[in-house]
Write a structure and sequence with these properties.
Its cofactor is [4Fe-4S] cluster; Mo-bis(molybdopterin guanine dinucleotide). This protein has 765 residues and is α/β, with parallel strands linked by helices. It is built from 32 helices and 31 strands. It binds ligand MGD (2 copies) and molybdenum atom. The site of one ligand MGD has 30 residues, from helix 10, helix 19, strand 24 and strand 25.
């Protein structure tokens, strides 16, 4: 185990002056300094707008500056004074724009007018909104609904998402893939089976009552930084934080609060992790099995010495099933296997477990390091197994805490964005709107792209996102995307997925929710669900980026109206005039959670969704919380056992990106400058291969499907990462990730463990 406070080689803590400077830099770069700074004061406040970056909870009593470096960058990115209008597109052909870097495409500015691709000139040209809607409607009516996919990236509001799913279903399909399919779907599937709820059970108040937290595969310092405030408060109460992560992430080591004058003026900082375990990529199931083994062994000793039990036997007996099978599995699994697969020493795992046996209330936070694996669902269930052993769910200060990604990704699923018919209240929708919703299962992300490669998809309607960059197997999906008949993009900025387009392609520019959205009934409000299941209102505060752009709800309404015509039973225009009418309908569909939606919209801290597992009511098959016996200790069955030089590649985000949006080429926290085409590697692995820092390498995926997957021009950076594991950036490494390399039950691509080999090295000169 590493002593986190001896990380002298890491000069960076998250927050602090570096963070303040980084915020000032991006505000200046986007030429929005003054405007940006005042806008930030409205971020995550009652009556203001919900940050467009992460989905972390918004407290009832926010800080004056309830934003972070990442959130400020996202705000600056949207409130930029740069614009790309029709004149820009007249100057650049699509072929030319395709030579631009992803960063430069979005950095060019906000889109100002609806555009249609013109094949003759190879340019996007301005089109009127009506013409665009008419044509898209006519195209969709001519297609089979099974051949159309309606994609949602996780940013759009509850109102827009509700309208979008209703549009898709009235049109005739459950093809509603969303970003969650690449993200926390392993949680939705795993937690549903284990506790009968697809979302986490903790709320902000639990931070005040917990006395131990674990972190598995989540990089709080860059991806949910506002949470550092709650972690800092907990650390002040001496709550230990035990982290499992293959990389030493500065944001998980220490934090300087940019809002605390004493921390800013002195070198003081809060130590975040009290134990830091650098396990192997894909070693989490093994590590948790090891912890469970240590807990059960401690219970055996307690029985032997007539001491109070370590296991919560009353909880296990009353509330769970499957404990005996699980305990048997844990007892028979050897420490040798656990140590080999996790890459951790038994003593270290026992130290992590020792904290667990002492604590009365435990939270387990986790992110993509658990979910984006072949056995990602199993990982989630292992988190539950650990929590069940001491009844750490359904009581204050305890529970699973999947930290969600996009700012409304959880909410979109709550209001019906799902390809799984059983998760949508189809009978209610049928009655409420007087139509017969499709009952056939729709396609998720992996299935959509499998079908696209087979030529079975005609159109994709994108509510945000950048799929040709975010999905696996780029070199196979780009040609398939190009062969689509129609691509429609509702978007704020230009990205690659608009340039690699279908035969017909539209760019429909929308407002960012930071902007004032005025409709017939006045200025509108939208809403989101945060990572802890609380719903918040959000109202724009700046002028729209251009007069010619429209709000997301109004674009979705117009698409629905023009496509469905007389088949529609909804007055889309009225909804578009007044979004509170949409909220009334959401309240009718899910009255338990959304009753009095409009009245409760501005509840400080948000109003919570109904969450039976929080009350120890288990909506599972057995009616109990279900223990689970792992299929295997290793998370990646595709990892070749016979190739000694095989490496496990995990793909990461930097502190200067939001998914496929690249703000800058640096990764300040990890000390990487000016390039994202890098591979982080253990120095011993480098020496064994006679490689040095700065050498250029290429990687190839190890797979026997006959497809060549290769990424070259990658520069080696020595890094504190376990041997046999390497790390590179998402989305640059996505050509290496096979589409079929996904979690079995959730189909989340295994982006955190890709089997690769090094195929060439050029020495640094
Ligand atoms: N600023 C910013 N904020 C964001 C985003 C962004 O791109 N930028 N993206 C948003 C979205 S959509 C999401 S889903 C979240 C993502 O947020 P996270 O869940 O934090 O996702 P990642 O950054 O991909 O990786 C998380 C961590 O997993 C570790 N890891 C890699 N492999 C393994 C493994 O096998 N086991 C374990 N235990 N750890 C591993 C990595 O070292 C990294 O620290 O953040 C959201 N917030
Ligand atoms: N290798 C690898 N691949 C991954 C991951 C990984 O860790 N590793 N992570 C996966 C995860 S967790 C996720 S969530 C996906 C993300 O995948 P996507 O949802 O496809 O991608 P984003 O980068 O979030 O989408 C960015 C685009 O959304 C548009 N946009 C921004 N703001 C708005 C808005 O307000 N409204 C509208 N309509 N559009 C807007 C802009 O055009 C911007 O270019 O990627 C996945 N892919
Ligand atoms: Mo995500």
């Amino acid at each position: 185990m590493d002593d986190p406070d001896h990380a002298r080689d890491y000069p960076y803590s998250s927050g602090g002056w570096g963070s303040v400077k980084a915020v000032a830099k991006i505000l200046a770069q986007e030429k929005a300094p003054l405007k940006g700074a005042t806008v930030l004061l409205h971020q995550n406040k009652t009556g203001g707008f919900a940050c467009v970056s992460c989905s972390w909870a918004k407290p009832a009593h926010p800080h004056t500056f309830e934003f972070c470096e990442s959130g400020a960058k996202a705000t600056a990115w949207d409130t930029t004074s740069k614009r790309v209008g029709p004149a820009f597109f007249d100057q650049h052909t699509v072929a030319e724009l395709n030579q631009w870097h992803d960063h430069d495409l979005e950095e060019a500015g906000r889109l100002t007018a609806p555009l249609r691709y013109d094949a003759v000139s190879d340019k996007y040209v301005e089109v009127s909104w009506d013409e665009a809607f008419e044509d898209i409607g006519a195209e969709l009516r001519a297609m089979h609904p099974d051949a159309v996919a309606f994609y949602t990236s996780g940013r759009a509001s509850l109102e827009t998402s509700y309208m979008f799913q209703l549009f898709a279903r009235m049109y005739g399909t459950n093809n509603l893939p969303d970003s969650s399919n690449m993200c926390h779907e392993s949680t939705s599937v795993g937690l549903q089976k284990a506790i009968g709820s697809g979302v986490g059970t903790i709320r902000l108040e639990d931070f005040e009552k917990t006395d131990l937290m674990y972190f598995f595969g989540q990089n709080v310092g860059t991806n949910s930084p506002r949470m550092l405030h709650q972690l800092q408060d907990a650390r002040k109460r001496d709550v230990p934080i035990v982290t499992f992560n293959p990389l030493r992430e500065p944001g998980l080591l220490r934090f300087s609060n940019p809002q605390s004058p004493t921390e800013m003026l002195t070198p003081a900082h809060t130590q975040i992790s009290t134990q830091y375990h650098q396990l192997k990529v894909g070693g989490d199931t093994a590590a948790i099995v090891g912890m469970c083994k240590a807990v059960i062994a401690a219970d055996d000793r307690a029985i032997e010495h007539d001491l109070p039990r370590v296991l919560d036997t009353a909880f296990i007996a009353e509330h769970t099933t499957g404990f005996d099978d699980f305990a048997r599995y844990v007892r028979k699994t050897s420490w040798t296997d656990i140590e080999r697969i996790s890459g951790l020493a038994r003593d270290d795992i026992e130290a992590a477990a020792h904290e667990y046996t002492k604590a009365a209330a435990v939270i387990v936070h986790y992110g993509m390091g658990l979910t984006q694996h072949r056995l990602g669902v199993q990982n989630v269930r292992m988190v539950c197994n650990l929590l069940f052993l001491r009844g750490n769910i359904g009581r204050p200060g305890a529970g699973p805490s999947p930290i969600r990604g996009h700012s409304n990704v959880q909410g979109q699923r709550t209001v019906g964005i799902t390809e799984k018919p059983e998760l949508a209240p189809l009978d209610v929708l049928a009655k409420q709107f007087g139509f017969e919703p499709p009952r056939k299962k729709g396609m998720n992300i992996v299935e959509t792209f499998e079908a696209m490669i087979e030529g079975k998809v005609s159109a994709v309607i994108n509510l945000g996102g950048n799929l040709v960059r975010s999905v696996p197997d780029r070199n196979r999906i780009e040609p398939a995307w190009r062969s689509l008949r129609l691509t429609v993009n509702i978007t704020t900025k230009l990205n690659r997925s608009h340039l690699v387009h279908g035969a017909k392609s539209y760019i429909l520019p929308c407002l960012s929710r930071i902007e004032i959205d005025t409709q017939a009934s006045g200025d509108q409000t939208v809403s989101m669900e945060d990572s802890t299941g609380c719903m918040h209102g959000s109202r724009g505060v700046t002028a729209p980026a251009a007069t010619g752009i429209r709000s997301e709800p109004s674009i979705v309404a117009a698409l629905a109206k023009h496509t469905l015509r007389e088949r529609s039973t909804v007055d889309w225009d009225r909804w578009c005039d007044d979004y509170s009418l949409v909220r009334d309908e959401i309240a009718k569909t899910w009255p338990e959670t959304f009753h009095d939606f409009n009245a409760r919209l501005w509840t400080p801290g948000g109003f919570p969704r109904v969450l039976p597992a929080r009350e120890r009511i288990w909506k599972t098959e057995s009616g109990k919380a279900e223990f689970f016996v792992p299929e295997m200790l290793e998370e990646d069955p595709d990892m070749p056992v016979r190739e000694p030089d095989a490496l496990r590649l995990t793909t990461l985000r930097s502190d200067s990106q939001f998914n496929t949006t690249i703000y800058a080429h640096d990764d300040r926290f990890r000390g990487i400058k000016s390039s994202r085409m890098v591979i982080l590697m253990n120095e011993r692995d480098m020496r064994a291969r006679s490689l040095h820092a700065g050498d250029e390498i290429a990687l190839e995926t190890i797979a026997d499907d006959g497809v060549e997957r290769r990424v070259a021009n990658l520069t080696l950076v020595p890094y504190a990462i376990p041997e046999g594991c390497i790390a590179g950036y998402y989305p640059e490494c996505n050509p290496l990730l096979p589409l079929w390399h996904h979690a079995k039950e959730s189909k989340v691509p295994g982006a955190k463990s890709i089997p690769v080999r090094m195929i060439a090295a050029r020495k640094r000169v």
